[in-house]
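Hey team,

Filing this mostly as a record. A colleague (T.K.) asked me to run one chain through the structure pipeline before their review meeting, and I want the input and output archived in the tracker in case anyone asks later how it was produced. No errors, nothing strange. Just documentation.

Input sequence:
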Amino acid sequence: MHSDLNSGTTYNPDLVKELRLVELPKRKPSCSANSIRLSYFDECDAVTTKPWIMKGLFARGETSSWVAPPGAGKSALMTCAAVHVSANRDWRGFRSKERCGVLYLAFERADLVKRRLAAYAKQGFTNLPIAIGDQIIDLMAPGCVDIILAAIREAEKRLGVKIGLIIIDTYAKGIAIGGGDEDKAKDQGKCLGHLRRVQETSNVHIAIVGHTGKDESRGGRGSNAHQADTDVQVQISGEDAVKTARVIKGNDQPSGILLQFTMRSEVMGVDEDGDEITVGILSDDEISGIPAKTKWPRSLTQLSDAIAAAILDNGYDHQIGSAGPIIRAVHLERVRAIYRKNYPALPDAKRPHETADRALTRALKDARDRHLVGTETILGKPIIWNAET
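Output structure:
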């Protein structure tokens, strides 16, 4: 057993394997004009299964972004996910599909990550294949590719299992340490390009953790090149006790609520003054339903009422993604029909409902930007649901 943070707390040394990251020579380009890997149209008809690590959450070869304001529990959420991925256990409705190791690159508050892992050791988790890197890596430098790949190899050798998930917490620190600016698309593109190079060799899932800007409705802080290059972007709201993680952008999964959680304090010991030493981790309580406070503005009341009425008359159960929660959804055309009733039709016009349809288009965009609705297209027909219910 080892001491943690000079606090007197102990933790299982098999749980946390620390890595010392040493910069290696810059790697050569991954391809040349004579060696680029090609696939052809006639080879694309085979249906392939996505290589899920945890179904509906993490897939190999993809990048996810997890953004939240400070104190919203994003690092605690990722630590809990790392524990369950490495333990090959289903988690909050998401099915574990592969036993693999986790490399947690804690660019800030690495000691807090270790305390949280020690809290899970107290709950009975043992010998988890998790490695923590507690030094900042310059993601602007091409050499970061070799540094991360070397860390993967070292962790796999020590842990005896392939690394499947890399968590970078926080991503902005890896940009700033190299003099980059997260507001600049070229800097974001350079860092994300380096991470893609890591994936070309290792086929890992990379989860990057970041902050929202001053206006949370605009998503993650910095250039939108970040959002454009990720496969899935999840935003966590933390105003209330119940935290809500929503998919706000997904290449092949719908937007909407992904999961909800609350936090609790785990007592790790006592200090020299006899006061309890605690660490915040996710509560085991499963959350169903919605946060108590909704955010529908008055300007969208008509849309909210139309969705509620359409669901009441013609709604049906719909599962979000392959392993997400089941909600009540309705075809968008049902909402449109109700919405049109509140607008006078233009007599003798080729498009008598043009005014209503334009208003609905504006309202839907506003609602999506505020993450109030989820949408998906099934068999060519768009469906919609209230993401706050």
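Quick notes for T.K.: The radius of gyration is 23 Å. The chain has two domains: 2-282, 298-386.
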